[in-house]
Automatic annotation (TrEMBL):
Gene3D superfamilies: 2.20.25.10, 3.30.300.20. It holds the Pfam family OsmC. SUPFAM superfamilies: OsmC-like. It comes from the Bacteria. PANTHER family: ORGANIC HYDROPEROXIDE RESISTANCE PROTEIN-LIKE (PTHR33797). InterPro entries: KH_dom-like_a/b (IPR015946), OHR (IPR019953), OsmC/Ohr_fam (IPR003718), OsmC/Ohrsf (IPR036102). This is Organic hydroperoxide resistance protein. Belongs to the OsmC/Ohr family.
């Protein structure tokens, strides 16, 4: 799939707002306003930390994989397919960029064992168009989608 002209994917109505607060950056903890999240955050060993906690990249991977999988199920249901048994795994990489900051890259691995390869590709492409995380990242970070 190639990116065409910019499409406005901003919401026309906000239906839900998630609230979370970081305390201490990458060496602290994060909480959500509703109390569902209360997690220790730590730098992974690969970035010089002790790894004794989650990190923003893991949280982003969890959010993106859940959101993309939901978009995939929605697209499948709209077209009459039951995608029970499907999964989406996300890998989020972080590294230095050319602007002396850091950037992210994402790889989504999609497993659709109940449909053939052509249909799987079509459903994944459609999910990529409606997923809020895909819309937020499009044109900003590299997102690779692998069908397996």
């Amino acid at each position: 799939m190639t990116d065409g002209p910019a499409v406005d994917t901003r919401p026309t109505k906000i239906m839900y707002v998630a609230e979370a607060t970081a305390h201490g950056g990458r060496e602290g903890y994060v909480t959500s306003q509703d109390g569902q999240l209360d997690l220790r955050v730590a730098m992974p060993p690969q970035l010089g930390g002790d790894g004794n906690g989650t990190n923003p990249e893991q949280l982003f991977a969890a959010g993106y994989s859940a959101c993309f999988h939901n978009a995939l199920i929605l697209v499948g249901n709209r077209e009459g397919y039951d995608l029970t048994g499907s999964t989406v795994a996300a890998k989020v990489g972080i590294g230095p960029n050319l602007q002396r900051g850091y950037g992210l890259a994402v790889a989504l691995s999609v497993s659709l064992p109940v449909v053939d390869a052509d249909l799987a590709t079509r459903l994944v492409d459609a999910a990529h168009e409606i997923c809020p995380y895909s819309n937020a990242t499009r044109g900003n970070i590299d997102v690779t989608i692998l069908l397996g």
